[in-house]
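Blinded run. Sample ID left blank on purpose so nobody reads anything into the name before looking at the predicted structure. Input follows.
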Amino acid sequence: MLLGLLVFAVVFGPLQASSQVAEVRNAVYADVSIPLRDMQPVKNAFWKKWMKEKEHEIPNKFRAVSPISVPDNAVQQEYSNGMKAVSTVPLINFAGMTNANNTGGRVTPPDPAGDVGPNHYVQAVNCMLQMFSKTGTSVYGPVTTSTLWSGFTGNWTGHNDGDAIVLYDENADRWIISQFAVDCAGTPLTEYQLVAVSTSPDPTGSYFRYAFQFDYMPDYGKLGVWGDGYYMSMNRFNTNSASTPFIGAGAVVMERAKMLTGDPAARMVYFKTETLGGTGSSAGSNCYSMLPSDCDGTFATAGTPNYFAYDDQASSELRIWALHADWTTPANSTFTYTTKMTVAAFTELGSVSQQGTTNTLDGLGDRLMFRNQYRNFGSYESFVTCRNVTVSGVAALRWYEYRKTGSTFAIYQQSTYAPGDGKGRWMGSIAQNASGDIGIAYSVSSSTMYPSIYFTGRKAADALNTLTIPEGIIQTGTVSMTGATRWGDYTAVNVDPSDNQTFWTTQEYVGTFGGSWPWATKIASFKFANTPLIVTLDATAITGTSATLNGTVNPNGNATTYHFEWGTTISYGTNTTAVAAGSGTSALPVNAPISGLTGGTTYHFRLVGVNSEGTTNGNDLTFTPGAAVVTTTAVTGITLIAAASGGNVTSDGGSTVTARGVCWATTANPIATGNHTTDGGGTGIFTSSITGLTSNTVYHVRAYATNASGTYYGADIQFTTLCGIYTLPFTETFSTTSIPTCWSQVDNAGGGQVWQFGTITGYTPNPALTGNYAYLNSDAYGSGSSQNADLITPTLDMTGYSAVNLAFSHYFRFYAGSSATL
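Blinded prediction complete.
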């Protein structure tokens, strides 16, 4: 029974360019704090609304993940690049906060957030806050995040409700820390977002503090720094309802200029998206977990709106809305649909396996992951973001770089990172540095490994749609999370403003310090060094005693020297003189002659490049002085017992080629002392007739050339003699119970599927077919997999025919009555 594939197409109409109504609100309270380092740490319990025990799993609010699996055509196909010399070891790697640091009981998930400044890294883990030097020394904390709000009096007092975000505003040299305060006093209960802006570059110093009130819980609040405001997105839930239904998304801009000076009159412009315009967006159901743009580096041109992004699986779209703040007349601010970009289809992630337990972790496959990072490159503006998907049931990372050129948005590159090793990769965060390099860090787990932290990335000049940097390990997990499924809602990758090159991240893993849900965090930095890009090329001008070594050097923007290493082993032992290659960014051809070689001896060599950022060793190659060089000609004219081949002697190695031809055997790499032809001598092209073969047999053939130094061979080529030659018309009824003579089969899916032969029995109902058949058992289709293999006819002699039809009968078990002839 053959398995058919049905393809469904869904067409959506264009989204409508509608705008939302602005609601202007002043901060309900504002002040300036004493230095944070002088505050008495708050030790109250946290998550009061949900906290009924000493240990608690914080409930998540997310929309249902679709169980529908769709083909993902953006899966990266290659995962290594041996010619890149990059460090896949973190530059800095130190411990952040753990669940043991929580006061009042342990909680999960941590939701690690953080950012890096010129001298500090500031980390928040939902309810806790700690500050470090960039070498990992703690300079403040850990304390409850609510410590930052000590003395900030309001009905939010005593709340430490989490969802903290930390950002560094590099254009102002200030820190922003926010968290929400939910279900505060009042009837109905009131909801707030608390935002603190440091008064100086010192994160342990004083802060301008603001409280902004919301009508509904501002869940999953995500911040972005922009020239004219601090922008925030949120998912709004009615916590006055027992079921806390999702109300809609929200988009906010807060008055950055006033908040940087501590002006208590700072305003907020608030947009509610219950009626977000556009097909498929009724009641905001498709507009979920939007992300504002968060600028690193140069701001966009004054007056440019902040762009909010979210994606929709059903329509395979990344959608953009623009929030334009008018601080002269705030009510004239607009939040307007801008564009949609079609992306490769993806399957949302459900959950992720762990080693040694059936307990799985939340995949959080319903949203884009923080951040939607923005960078202004002048001639274009670039955004990067990522999400959690699944490929063949394994967690994977989908990432996007989309660009705005003039007023036009377009996907520049996209990819699903799923190396196919069975490891689930998810909960990523992504960023782009000033050179256009991209870094991404993420959680990794599977049924054979504990939750861990990895990172990878790509250089700006690498092939599009690929992450080319070999994966680095920040932390290997040592146990699994049991008793809770919550893993996290976001992590952070940021770029060091000191060099605009180095990536910093905070991520979570599961450690061995004991207790419930023993998650821990790491803070690490990594950089894809601009070491030389080196390629070793074949040696030329080879004689019995000398040769020229070749390669290419790309200095990668740094003053670089190069030399060749060579010798009779991979330890080399001899170097050529170092030569300057300049400091350009293009590949330069280089070479070096060597002499004093021994004929007939194989030598190893490689090109080496050195600059201020490191050393790159090229690939190892070999040559043999005095060796003849010969290539093998493709095999043609294959019959039952004969074939034709030959070769081309391109170099005699410095001594006359006295014999040449081809040799063959049923095993690989035949030699000229076995079956062979003799086809003259010298250099150049020659042809060879191979006779005396056996039908339906696999053979290996390669050319050879003999000179004074020895016998040398071309590449091994495999071919199969004909089993039989069949004329037309040709019919196969599969009347046997095994594969017919001269047919063959290939398993295309790699899963061991094979064709079966004979009468189809054992099915209810049995197919209404008579006689014997070749068939695939496609029962696995019902569980989401399928059978896939090729059945190949014998060679058919079509001489004299201009058009030939191939027909076969088919039957689809799962589609009653679906049988016919194709």
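Unblinding after everyone has recorded impressions. The two ends are 14 Å apart (CA to CA).
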